[in-house]
Structures are given as structure tokens and as C-alpha cells.
Amino acid sequence: MDLLQHNYVFITSSVLFFIGFVGMLKSARSFFNFILSSLIVINSIIINLIAFSKYYDNYEGYVYSLIFMVLFSLIIIVGLIIFKNYNDKFDNIKIHDIDDKK
Amino acid sequence: MIDLYSSIILLICIISSSLVIGSRRFGKSLSAYVLLIIALTMLIIDVDDILFASLFFIVNSTIIIAIFVFYFMSRQGIKRIRRIRAKDVVVLLPVALFLPLFSFSKNEETTYNFNNLIFTSELYGKYTYLILTLGITALITIIGIVIITSDKNKKVKDVEEKEDKTDFVNIVDYSTKYEYQDEEESK
Question: Which fold has domain A3-101?
């Protein structure tokens, strides 16, 4: 397997990593944009792992990428739950309240 | 060497990830993220086996559904639920349908293996995945449209009920005021 065949994968993953990192720095106000940017970074890492494992014919990369995928998805869901509970505790506004204000 | 297929994937990845971090609307950024995930799945299919690509797609779609649900459960989502238009979410679905079909049509061997793996027979042919993709996409589109429209109708009904109640209260208040004024005038 030639390295040049996987060249575009490395380019894609590096570009995605850079864009996701910039998005994480930029989206200080919006929590969901921050999460989506961090997901972009995680996906770029996973794709890089897959491409390198294919290049070296080593299946450890697949295993690690699977572990990373499951672990990061769990972390993000826990973060979402914490965010939701935080919103409920400190700023619990329902639809009726918003309608009353309008 | 970067061929046309790879360059298309690279372009889609760059544009969709820029849209994800650049757009202010949640619907646009989430649909751009869906497009990015589809492009990455195509990239994994091109590099590696279809099984890992399907795993990647399933895990990421679960995360997307979790983000969608938690967004609408949060205060920010409730506030902005009126601003989200159905076309923001639905507009990229034809693209989302077309791109995996394009990738699968490129690699017929993986499609054949996938069909054999899932259905363990050749009766379904190589168009099984096409029919499955069409059906699932149509189902998701219909469910999304129904959820968005039913939520808007429910809110309109709530507002109408409240307006009715406030009118009734105002009428009662005015009537008591007039009665009070009449009593004062009679005295």
C-alpha cells in the first residue's frame, strides 16, 4: 500500500482537525457549536487512525479508533446531560412562561 | 495522486466543516455536520471496508440524535424552536441520499459483500441498499416534518387558548367595574 494513495486522507484529516480546533476556540458562546467542533476534531483523529492502520496493515488502529469512538460519544452525551441539568437548575423557563412574556 | 472522487470528498469536508463552525443557526450547522459525516463515511469506504464505515456512521448518527434531542430539551432550544425552519433540516437530504449511492456505485464489491452479509442471499440483488437508504431517508424526513409542524400547531393552540382566557378575565373585570360604578352612581 503506497503512502500516496492515502495522501488525501491525511490532508483531509489535518484540514478537519485545524477547522475543528478553530471552531472550538471561536465558539465560546454557543455550547452546541463547541460540541460539534469537538466532534469534528475527534472524527479527524479517528480517520487518521484508520488510514495509518491500513497503511501499516496493523489492526490495532481499528481497535483504538473503535474505543475512541465509543468513549468520546459517551463523554459528549454525559456533557449534554450536565448542560441540560444546569439549564434546568438555573434557568428553568418553560414554553408557557415565554408566551406570557410575549 | 488525488483523483476526482477524493478531491470531491475533500471539498465537501472543508465546506461542510466550515459551515458547522460558521453558521449561527443550529439547524444549518447540524445539517452541515450530517453532510460532513456522510462525506467521511464515503472516505472510509474508499480507504477501508464497508463494515467499519457503517459502524462509524451508526455511532455518529446516534450522537447527532442525542444532540438534537438535548438541544430541544434545553432552554435555548425552546426559545429558538420557532425560528428553525423545516427546510433548513430537509434541504440537504437529497444530497445526503445521493452521496452514499454515488460511493456505493463506485465500489460494487463492497455492496455485494454487504448484501450477502445482511441478507445472506443474492435474491435481494444489489439494489437492496438503494431501497433501504431511500426508505430510511423518506421515513426520517416525514418524521422530522411531522414533529416540527405538530409542535408549531401545539404552540399556536396554546396561545389561542390563553388569549381566550385573558379575554374572559377582562370581560369579568370590566363587568365588575361597571357594576361598582353603577352602585356608586345610585348612591
Answer: Helix Hairpins (1.10.287)
